[in-house]
Amino acid sequence: MVVTLAYIVLFLVFSWVILRINQKSDSLSKSVFIAIFLGAVIGLSLHFISANHTKTIIEWYSIVGNGYVHLLKLVAIPLIFISILSAINKLENSAGIGKMSLTIVGCMLCLVMVAGFIGLLTAHVLGLDASAFVHMPSMLTTEEVNKTAAVSIPQLVTSLIPTNIFLDLTGARSVSVIGIVIFTLIAGIALLKVKKEAPEEGQKLSAGINAIQIWVMKMVRIVIALTPYGVMALMTTVFSSYHFEQFASLLGFIGACYIAIFMMFIVHAILLILSGNNPARYFRMVWPVLTFAFVSRSSA
What is the DSSP letter of 137? Predict the structure, then answer.
């Protein structure tokens, strides 16, 4: 019990250090990388104490780590929904919404396929396998894997069309995000028609959407502020789960991830050039968003 309390106090002390750094600097990425380092230090130190103590400590740390992941999932779906609806709300008419809808969904699907291909290519070229992760519990059963592999392309396309928006809002399906995008686009088209045919009611809807967007963004900022603490707890769990001889394989996997991410940056840059945009300016403007997406996704 004393050891567990000592590690809880250590986490609180490191959290206070991160808080002080946040107060002196507005850089989220700086705080997150410091949190990763501190989490690694705590995780590695757990290898030198008994397994029972380690298990208890990780259970306490998981309150922060898993709690942070749950909060991310909580705000992700509302953020996607209101962001797309707000963008459509700013359009003057629905003339170009069909093209925009196809562009959004098409780009999403194409980029996912390109990312999957790059991931497979990187793993194949570098000779990666799952030998370093066999001790980690799998979230997928053999039955689920076989069921997914048996899905045909027509069935896959049909599955993208939502049947119950409330089910997709819970993230219950693997394609829930795409389902929400499709529903939001339909809702956006209906919104523009209401604004055109019933201007008074349309203005009320428009004002309500703007208010909800401000509200959701405030919630997102609250969760973003918790990122360093959640990441530190999650990194502690990760580094305590691997034996020292497995870190070489883990570092190889991390290196492969960075290579694949860099290749996706090149893909995005090419698309930006083809669309007549400046890649350097674009990446400079969205860098804070990309940083948060990177650290939060790697945590989840």
Answer: P
Q: Which residues, other chains included, contact 105 with Cβ-Cβ below 8 Å and sequence gap of 6+?
A: 178, 181, 182, 185
pLDDT tens figures, 252-300: 777 888 888 889 889 989 988 988 888 888 888 887 667 666 655 544 3
64 in Cβ contact with 14 (< 8 Å):
no
Beta carbons within 8 Å of 64's beta carbon, 6+ residues apart: 11, 229, 230, 232, 233
Asked if 68 and 300 count as a contact pair (C-beta separation under 8 A), the reply is no
Distance in angstroms (rounded) separating the CA atoms of residues 186 and 184: 5
Q: Which two tokens stand for residue 61?
A: 């740390």
Between 92-101, 185-194, 272-281, the lowest mean confidence (pLDDT) is in 92-101
Domain annotation for the chain: domains and CATH numbers: 2-299 (1.10.3860.10)
Q: Is 104 exposed, middle or buried, given 0-12, 13-18 or 19+ CB atoms closer than 10 A? A: middle
> pLDDT tens digit string along 156-185?
778 778 888 888 877 777 778 888 888 888
Q: Which two tokens stand for residue 197?
A: 């045919």
Backbone angles phi, psi at 133, to 5 degrees: -120, 15
Residue with the larger pLDDT of the pair 193 and 153: 193
**Euclidean distance between CA atoms 84 and 186, whole angstroms:** 11
